[in-house]
Design a protein that fits this description.
This is Aldehyde dehydrogenase family protein. This protein has 483 residues and is of the alpha/beta class. It has two domains: 277 residues, Aldehyde Dehydrogenase, Chain A, domain 1 (3-Layer(aba) Sandwich); 196 residues, Aldehyde Dehydrogenase, Chain A, domain 2 (3-Layer(aba) Sandwich). Strands 14-15-16-13-12-18-19 form a seven-stranded mixed beta sheet, sandwiched between helices. A six-stranded mixed beta sheet has the order 9-8-7-10-11-21, sandwiched between helices. β10, α8 and β11 form a beta-alpha-beta unit. α2 packs across α6. The longest helix is centred in the first third of the chain and has 22 residues.
Length: 483
Amino acid sequence: MKERLFIGGEWVEPDGGHYEVVDPATEEVVGLAPEASRAQVHEAAAAARQAFTAWSRTRPEERAAILDRAASLVQRDLEAHTEVARAESGATTATARGMQVGVGAARFRRYAKGALEPVEQALPPQISAAGPMGKAGVLGAVAVRRPVGVVTCITSYNNPWANPAGKVAPALAMGNTVVVKPAPQDPLSVYRMAEALQEAGAPPGTVNVVTGSAPAVGEAAVDSGDVDMVSFTGSTAVGRRIAEVCGRGMKRQLMELGGKGAALVFDDADLYTAVRGIGTTFSFYSGQICTAPTRVIAQRGVYDRLVEGLAAYARALRVGDPADPGTVLGPVISSAHRDRVESYVELGRKEGARLVTGGERPACDKGFYVAPTLFADCTKDMRIVREEIFGPVVVAVPFDDEEEGVALAGDSDYGLIDYVFSGDVARAFRVAGELRTGGVGVNTVGRNMEAPFGGFGSSGVGRDVGSYALHAYSELQSVVWPG
């Protein structure tokens, strides 16, 4: 599979040749991704700029129809897309089908409806007394959401369908045009997405896809003078560099960055629910998910039982080939990332944390596998407690009373999603109000996909998902007139 760049509605040979995309499970090459030059990235942004005027003036119903057709086309080719997503990302087949391709199609369907949501909000009339500005009178006003312009969408490797679709679909629904720069590790799925949008009738230049293994490609997608906004999902370190460039150009930003979610488990919690919820850190996409409850902060009355339950959960997981229907835990994305996760496991040992389970590389002939790993008896100052590991590693910290538990949960640079497990719902909601984080799950790790998503602090800037994504990809304009 040898891909070409998608620029201005045309499939273009890359200036920099191609680089290999590797299956994390087999270490085999599954495709060749194009290496764009800076000039080609800027050409993509220029194509998006040229297409913007016409696209932003299309009727909402036309934009909705294109997005809806794209969703149907993705679903039509669900199994083929699933195979590509599984092979390039290392996700299990079930995850690739349901949580990657399936969610990607659902997001196009959701924002087909979103294109039809009202963009005007009437405001109360204002009575103005006579003065230097003129006679007395009544002024009417309306706030209108307008498209931002050209949006660069830089996406993460942990979901090559849902993450790009969650940016592209609402941006297009609002009348923006986009330049998509996928993560270098698994960009092939985004080209399938571009094909679906092209077949659905998206006009040339509305959607552009550029890829590259070198940082220069992403840098060009951010610094182009044709780009009005950057939507980024990835590490906090890269987000800071992007923000600096955006600041110089006064470009809009939407940043969904790292996380180190706290799972605050009280003595009266349902431990079965807590274990299953926290256990998703081990099992779902090998812990490569920023919303994972990776810091378990447990009250001493349940601490030992919770640690035992999590250890049993981790040991029961079947690790292996993600194409095997029985596999629960597949590989991490690359050998470099496996080395990084393993370095944190070694660091945890050196810091004095108690290794309860895991810590050894699984006995697989090939692939970038990491055993589900649990550390207990950690302290708040340990790096494994403070830093995002982004792998199947959970750390546990005990606490005595509510005040201490809340303080431990809040002692983090991150603030994406935390979790509270308690049989006292009133307390759970009270504690949620004390947590400086963009979201709180109460007795669940599930998400409501209409609720705003984003973080405090080092976890990002802005909110998306549901109608909030439409707001994120729009500018507010006020229109005032005499009554």
